[in-house]
Amino acid sequence: MPKVLIAGAGLVGALNACYFAQKGWDVEVYEFRPDIRKMEHVPGRSINLALSDRGKAALEGVGLKEYIVQQGVPLYGRLVHDKDGKTFHRIPYGQPGQHIVSINRRHLNEVMITLAEKSPNVRFFFEHKVKSVNVEKQELTVICDGIELTQKAELILGCDGAYSAVRRSLAAYPRFDFAQEYIEHGYVELNILPKNKDFALEPNAFHLWPRGDYTMIALANRDHTFTVTIFAPFRVFEEQMSNDSDIIKFFEENFHDALELMGRAHVLETFHRVRPQSLVSIKCKPHHFGKSVLLTGDAAHAMVPFYGQGMNCGFEDCLVLSEIIDQHANDIPKALRVYSETRVKDAHNIIDLAMYNYEELKDLVNHTSYKLRKKLDLILNRWLPETWIPLYSMVTFTRIPYSQVVQNRKWQDDLLRRVHTSLFLGFLAAGSAIGYLLVKKRNLL
Ligand SMILES: Cc1cc2nc3c(=O)[nH]c(=O)nc-3n(C[C@H](O)[C@H](O)[C@H](O)COP(=O)(O)OP(=O)(O)OC[C@H]3O[C@@H](n4cnc5c(N)ncnc54)[C@H](O)[C@@H]3O)c2cc1C
């Protein structure tokens, strides 16, 4: 059987391991961290994640969808909290019943590692740091206890996240395009504990506090807590949240209702303990190198988290790769070329959409024109479910390639613009005709 070396046992590395385990390949996964199943506290990014249809489809491919979805909390739409802390409005995600699922990152990762490990042909090597990849020799070099080990395989997958060592070692590869952008915003995670052993806020909604330049979100967890994330420019963290009284003042002014639920002591303790984390967006092209090396997940396309698609897109990578390898009867060099051709443009499109969605989350949701467009999209979608699918629904509730999603949205916008212009001209013409007839009639009288 062919062999695959996987760099990174995060979400995408672990799912890739499950896919190749199913195919009967020899799988070796090299992970920098200790085994997270044995760790008390796992440092790192967001505690919970929104799973949508692309991610679900990929989990279904390894038989995990039902189990993971059951472990999560369904979210049916956004619940937008106004500044007064008392009023809010709802924006459904799609048609009744359509939802995303809030799931626990650590649990998901653990379940996938355990599933992959059940296959005798899969081995995980924890506390092994990937150093580099050699495309020509089809080799991966890892370091453990200061000793370098080099392994060879038919396929090498870089799934080692946004700061990928595999990608870094490919920087000098001919015609490799790479672009990285840090946005001016950072984020801090907080918590809302249960109230009387129950959820302190409505659990089945994505809570949103849009405040123009900054925003805050909260997603429910199964243990009745909420993970709250505040996103703000680093400048705002530094200038307006630099000491205890400023932090409390900032939260009182902007997120009064949430502050009461989080508690002042928790907010201050968190800001003393953690610093705002940065958010990076990474585009590269191609995703494959030579006959055997491929980047997937954040290593290939880190994106800002505002569309909740980073993991979903990474999971879809695993599914697409598996399908393409099957279609090409294990001809890996050909499969990798085909994968790169289709997936690069999709990755670039969702990276751009994720940037755009931040405008929506921090500000646009408050605009009347935005709310009207959302309503119009949902009405048209109900009448023409196959033809008119709103942007958010195409990204979240379908597997339409991201590049096609962007094309579809363009024709929808063009059509609405033309209808708008025609209606305007029609009203203008009708108004002029009526005016002319009235004037004429008065002159005749
Ligand atoms: C605040 C926030 C919220 C988010 N919310 C969502 C969401 O709701 N929905 C969604 O779909 N996405 C979300 N994302 C994005 C999501 O977290 C990522 O897209 C996802 O984690 C990518 O998985 P990955 O396996 O590619 O990378 P990672 O999760 O980063 O895993 C990489 C793994 O590689 C290991 N590694 C790194 N370097 C090495 C090395 N040199 N050698 C060996 N191992 C190494 C790491 O230890 C890690 O285990 C969010 C991101 C952030 C920051």
Automatic annotation (TrEMBL):
<comment type="similarity">
    <text>Belongs to the aromatic-ring hydroxylase family. KMO subfamily.</text>
</comment>
<dbReference type="GO" id="GO:0043420">
    <property type="term" value="P:anthranilate metabolic process"/>
</dbReference>
<dbReference type="InterPro" id="IPR036188">
    <property type="entry name" value="FAD/NAD-bd_sf"/>
</dbReference>
<keyword id="KW-0496">Mitochondrion</keyword>
<keyword id="KW-1133">Transmembrane helix</keyword>
<comment type="function">
    <text>Catalyzes the hydroxylation of L-kynurenine (L-Kyn) to form 3-hydroxy-L-kynurenine (L-3OHKyn). Required for synthesis of quinolinic acid.</text>
</comment>
<feature type="transmembrane region" description="Helical">
    <location>
        <begin position="419"/>
        <end position="439"/>
    </location>
</feature>
<keyword id="KW-0521">NADP</keyword>
<keyword id="KW-0662">Pyridine nucleotide biosynthesis</keyword>
<feature type="domain" description="FAD-binding">
    <location>
        <begin position="3"/>
        <end position="352"/>
    </location>
</feature>
<dbReference type="GO" id="GO:0034354">
    <property type="term" value="P:'de novo' NAD+ biosynthetic process from L-tryptophan"/>
</dbReference>
<dbReference type="GO" id="GO:0005741">
    <property type="term" value="C:mitochondrial outer membrane"/>
</dbReference>
<dbReference type="InterPro" id="IPR002938">
    <property type="entry name" value="FAD-bd"/>
</dbReference>
<dbReference type="GO" id="GO:0004502">
    <property type="term" value="F:kynurenine 3-monooxygenase activity"/>
</dbReference>
<protein>
    <recommendedName>
        <fullName>Kynurenine 3-monooxygenase</fullName>
        <ecNumber>1.14.13.9</ecNumber>
    </recommendedName>
</protein>
<keyword id="KW-0503">Monooxygenase</keyword>
<dbReference type="InterPro" id="IPR027545">
    <property type="entry name" value="Kynurenine_monooxygenase"/>
</dbReference>
<dbReference type="GO" id="GO:0019805">
    <property type="term" value="P:quinolinate biosynthetic process"/>
</dbReference>
<keyword id="KW-0274">FAD</keyword>
<keyword id="KW-0285">Flavoprotein</keyword>
<dbReference type="Pfam" id="PF01494">
    <property type="entry name" value="FAD_binding_3"/>
</dbReference>
<dbReference type="GO" id="GO:0006569">
    <property type="term" value="P:L-tryptophan catabolic process"/>
</dbReference>
<keyword id="KW-0812">Transmembrane</keyword>
<comment type="pathway">
    <text>Cofactor biosynthesis; NAD(+) biosynthesis; quinolinate from L-kynurenine: step 1/3.</text>
</comment>
<dbReference type="GO" id="GO:0071949">
    <property type="term" value="F:FAD binding"/>
</dbReference>
<keyword id="KW-0560">Oxidoreductase</keyword>
<dbReference type="GO" id="GO:0070189">
    <property type="term" value="P:kynurenine metabolic process"/>
</dbReference>
<keyword id="KW-0472">Membrane</keyword>
